[in-house]
Write a structure and sequence with these properties.
Elements: H1 5-20, H2 28-35, H3 39-51, E1 55-58, E2 64-67, H4 76-82, H5 108-124, H6 127-137
Antiparallel strand pairs: 1-2
Helix pairs in contact: 1-2, 1-3, 1-6
Length: about 150
């Protein structure tokens, strides 16, 4: 199994919002810069994440994206599903009708079990825990620029 950029970038972007937003909307351009993700591609990802109720958008000059749910309620699995990516190790695990060897395949059981274990890992990994892990690693937050005022 190999996750595409859409899943990987989606997870990084959601982490970025949770870690750097301080509860305020975050603009796509800022996430794109911090996470080194092309802004246009990130906008496509956010469109899908919004449809899946993972993020919500706020309009206006101070607008951007915010998490639609608590960070501990959003799993990596939710993000992968939102961008419409399969989590199965191999295609035939859930598509028996498309496989001519389905009734004779002895390895399918192995692929199915491995896919289930991968899904368990993605289901158990939530964004809140990733933020806690980032804090422990000493990863710097980028929230101060929002609160700098000058007269």
């Amino acid at each position: 199994m190999r996750l595409t950029k859409m899943s990987r970038f989606g997870a990084r972007a959601i982490f970025d919002i949770a870690y750097n937003s301080a509860g305020l909307p975050v603009q796509v351009k800022d996430i794109a810069k911090r996470q080194e993700i092309p802004q246009r591609f990130l906008e496509q990802i956010f469109h899908r994440l919004k449809k899946a109720n993972i993020v919500k958008s706020v309009k206006g000059p101070n607008g951007g994206y915010m998490l639609a749910r608590d960070s501990y309620e959003i799993t990596v699995s939710d993000i992968i599903k939102a961008v419409k990516e399969p989590m199965d190790l191999v295609y035939c695990v859930n598509n028996l009708n498309d496989c001519s060897r389905a009734t004779q395949c002895v390895t399918r059981v192995v692929w199915k079990e491995a896919s289930e274990r991968i899904k368990q890992v993605f289901d158990s990994a939530n964004i809140g825990d990733l933020c806690t892990s980032a804090e422990k690693k000493g990863i710097k937050r980028d929230v101060l620029h929002r609160f700098e005022y000058s007269i």
